[in-house]
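Worked example

This section walks through a single chain of length 265. The input is the sequence exactly as stored; nothing has been trimmed or padded.
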Amino acid sequence: MDGARAVRHTPFPHRSPQLNAEPADQIRLLDVQALDVRLSQLAHKRKSLPEHAEVDSLTKDLSQQRDLLVAARTQAGDAAREQTKAEQDVDQVRQRAARDQQRLDTGVGISARDLANLQSEVVSLAKRQGDLEDVVLEVMERLEAAQERVTGLTERVSALETKLTDATARRDAATGELDDEAARISKDREVIVGSMPTDLMALYEKIRVKQGGVGAARLYQRRCEGCRLELDMAEINEIKAAARDQVVRHENCGRILVRAADSGI
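Given that input, the structure is written out below as tokens.
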């Protein structure tokens, strides 16, 4: 591993002890930085995929509709049982009224007093039957409405499930592509980093974490491409005086400045 190359520490004006690394390694540090920027972009893109919000929204809607469907089915079940009970009550009253009417029709062994009582009971049962039949009709209407709601919610849930399945598949496909690209870039990065001086990479990583993901920047025409600021003449002169293998940093942002033919110094 090339990282075993000796890296000697030398002072740099106005700063803590600096590193020395081969100019070629410093140039390759820009390659690592470019890969890190791309990895950061991929991570942001993955997190910001519209499919994530779509899946979350559909999942929330589906949960709500499923809850409503459960409630509607419960209402329909309660109404169905209530209807069954009401119909049984009507049937009991109807049977009793039929027996009383049969006794009235035959008139066998019935005293005048019993006859009057039976006639009164038949009238009372007829009214009771009518009231119970009204109850049955009212329950039937509620049951029908509940069943229609169950049907509508079932269709809605089914449609949302289809949409969620589709959105999830699209999200997984999109994240899969990004993850594959990130994996390829990470492997390329490992290859480069594996041949870089460990001290140089340690400094780069420390600065990169502190400076929002950019630890090294090209010095292009006397301008730091990390913070986009032009260096003043004093700093330019310091860099001119520095050895080519000395790792220099921008006084303003602290990033490693990589010198090249187009640096303007």
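What to look for: The radius of gyration is 43 Å.
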